[in-house]
Amino acid sequence: MKSLRDTPAHLLLIRFSALGDILMTVPVVDALARQYPEVSITVVSRPWVGSVFGLLPENVSFVGINPRDYPGISGLWKMFCQLRALKPSCVCDLHDVLRTKVLRLFFRGAGVPVFHINKERKARRAFLHQERKEQQITSFDKYARVLREAGYEVNLAEEQRRTLVKGQKQAAVGIAPFAAHQGKIYPMEKMEEVIRLLSASYQIFLFGAGSKERQLTEAWEKKFPNVVSMVGKLPDMRHELECMASLKAMLTMDSGNMHLAALTDTPVVSLWGATHPLGGFLGWNQAMEHCVQRDLPCRPCSIYGQKPCRYGDYRCMNQIAPEEVAEKVRSVCK
Q1: How far is it, in rounded angstroms, from Cα 140 to Cα 12?
Q2: Does the pLDDT value for residue 321 go beyond 90?
Q3: What average pLDDT does this structure show over 204-210?
Q4: Based on the domain organization, do 177 and 66 belong to the same domain?
Q5: How does pLDDT run across 218-233, given as a tens digit for each residue?
Q6: At what angle do helices 188-199 and 211-223 cross, to 10 degrees?
Q7: What is Dmax (Cα atoms) for the chain?
Q8: DSSP assignment, residue 158?
Q9: Average pLDDT over the chain, rounded to whole?
Q10: Which of 95, 118, 133, 136 is the most exposed place for a label (fewest CB within 10 A)?
Q11: d(CA 11, CA 90)
């Protein structure tokens, strides 16, 4: 088979959501850009992640698209025409949802080679029922596999210890207490106790997004010394990365902020409830020993954490003591 590298290469990489999944493409795109500096790479994703991709090598460009602005088949055709005008030599669909499947159909019709991710859905379902959990193929490896199928042997091992942003450390800890689903969120009253325990020794920076999260974090800011809410105070994700890079440690859920912090040289402690770090979504370069979780027969109950607790009490999170979480954070700050 003739390699796509025999012709001037312009790869179009598409991934629209969710935040954590988009951020997991970053180390892979970074590796691709560094190992193939002659290749032009365009990443198509949500506009608000553009500042992160702006940190990658110069052969990476970014196109921000909000899919809601392109409704229906006519909207997708408009999006296709916009992307086709970029003259890609190859399209890599890193999302594989209905919207991107239609885009793939359009590109194939235009004679552009198309490759797409295999999400291993059957293996994921089987993982939930394994008595002894085995490491699943990570999203990083799945993204790299798409690129290999397109003719680009991306070696992630060469980039394994690379971090996107490094910073001068201060005696401070970041906490991102939120996630998309309740099964991935440490109870707020317990997190408040963690904040109380850690604020006695460290400056605490709280991360999140949206009015409700801002209201809660600012309430904690008023209640405890050495606590600062960063919600709504930073202009973009690049500034969030720079702030996270200056910290001794980050405490997160299985969330987008875990993946954002993983792009820095700051160690990340992550809390796992309904989901499991062996499911393939642990952050880039993250250590299993920094994951706090309970070994319960009912978990993980889902890959994404969206299912309601079958017992109604979210014991997977509630059985984790605040003192244990605080001590884990202290241990990585040493």
Answers
A1: 17
A2: yes
A3: 97
A4: no
A5: 999 999 999 999 999 9
A6: 40
A7: 64
A8: G
A9: 96
A10: 118
A11: 5
Phi, psi of 289 (to 5 degrees): -70, -10
Q: What is the mean pLDDT of residues 56-70?
A: 98
Domain, as residue range, for 32: 4-159
Domain boundary among 159, 189, 217: 159
Domain end among 105, 134, 159: 159
* Distance from the Cα of residue 204 to its chain's centroid: 22
Query: 155 and 186: one domain?
Result: no
Is pLDDT above 90 for 6?
A: no
The count of structural domains within the chain is 2
* Residue 8 shares a structural domain with residue 128: yes
Fill in the amino acid letter for 59.
N
Distances (CA, A) of 129 to 124, 126, 151, 176, 187: 9, 5, 35, 30, 26
pTM over 0.85: yes
Do 271 and 320 contact (CB within 8 A), yes or no? yes
End-to-end distance of the chain based on CA atoms, in angstroms?
53
Q: Please tell me the predicted confidence (pLDDT) of residue 2.
A: 37
Cβ(4)–Cβ(89) under 8 Å?
yes
What is the residue-wise DSSP string for 57-125? -TTEEEEE--GGGS-HHHHHHHHHHHHHTT--SEEEESS-SHHHHHHHHHHHHTT--EEE----HHHHH
Contact partners, residue 269, CB within 8 Å, separation at least 6: 249, 250, 251, 252, 290, 291, 292, 325, 328, 329, 332
Residue 94 burial (10 A CB sphere; 0-12, 13-18, 19+): buried
Percentage of the chain exceeding pLDDT 70: 98
Whether 110 and 199 share a structural domain: no
Q: What is the dihedral of CA 138, 14, 120, 128, to 10 degrees?
A: 60
Question: Is 10:86 a contact under the CB 8 Å cutoff?
Answer: yes
Residue 164 in any domain: the answer is no
Q: Looking at residue 180, which CATH number applies to its domain?
A: 3.40.50.2000
Q: Answer yes or no: do 139 and 247 share one domain.
A: no
